[in-house]
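Justification of resources, computational component.

The compute hours requested in this renewal are based largely on the per-chain cost of generating structure records like the one below. Each record pairs the submitted sequence with a full structure-token output. That output is archived, and it is also reused by downstream analysis tasks.
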Amino acid sequence: MRAIAALMAYYNAKTQAAAQVMLFGYDHNISHLTQAEQLLRQSVNDFKQLTALTQTTYRTAAGMQTSQRQIPVRGGPTTNHWRDLLPVYEKELAVFDKRLETLKKTGIEAAENSAQGSGARFPQVGFTLAPGAGQTFTVAQGQKLYIDLTTPIQTIAPELNGMTGIRVSAQQTEPIHFTLDKPAQILVGFFKSNSQHATNVSPDTEQWNLLLPNAVTEPKGLPISIWSKPLPAGKNDLDLGKGAYVVLGFIPEDAHVVPHITSAAGQPANLDWLFEN
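The structure output for this chain reads:
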């Protein structure tokens, strides 16, 4: 009974946290995320209690024993006990904490009202792409995101529209080489593949800064958030290994951009980026 109570407490807190996040998606009031963080933290604490209670008393407890199982997470038999799921939820909380800290530092909820729809394209820094991997393109609705797939840009933040970017293969493994006219910030769109077998690049490091969450979407609805990183003038390379990404352009090193959410008018933004690398 104690295990059941702990499980119900976990689901209760997690459901309330999700509700607060959904409210933020509509009004962008960051207080909803502050409440969500508290509830999410409580849910992890409840799950820790559940894990402790079932550590030696349950052999399996988390779901169906099939490789196709995706409830509550992907993984099949590798996540067949409550203790196997605890690290998943701890990581989710850690990522959420980082994202919330970023939003609080930049005042993203105010920036949404002032910056969205301004229509002013970012100033660009010129570059020359070396022969080999990669292909330059004009960033705009309908343009392909990959060299070797027809996946088009469906929506795009106005600040990026018309910039010169670099697209790569959907299975890119080679670095791209380019020369910058002057010091710049590279803008890279990282997005999550809908294939559980894909290896996705994680920009969540000290070098990368979240700039425009949800800045680009593609037909299947997968959101692409834009991250930036400073680079020196002259020859540079970008080696992100295998993963899904696209370079949306280069802006001056000293350009000040207030991060803000982009979403279609009257529609809540996709907020998966709050929880996932």
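Residues 109-118, 194-200 have pLDDT under 50 and may be disordered. The first helix runs from residue 2 to 27.
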